[in-house]
Amino acid sequence: MRRSIDRAGGDRSVRAAAASASALCGALLCGIALVHLAAQLLGNVPLAGLTQVLLMPLLAAALWAGTTAPRPLMVRLALVALGFSWLGDVIPRFVGGEPGFLGMLGSFLVAQLVFALAFWPRRGRSVLRSPLKVLPYLAVAVSIIVLCAPGAGSLLPTVTVYAAAIGAMAVLATGMGRRGGLGGALFVLSDALIALRAFGVLTLPAHETWVMATYITAQVLLILAVRSVSRTDPPEGDGTVPGGRSAERRRRG
Question: Region Disordered: which residues (predicted)?
Answer without folding.
Answer: 232-253
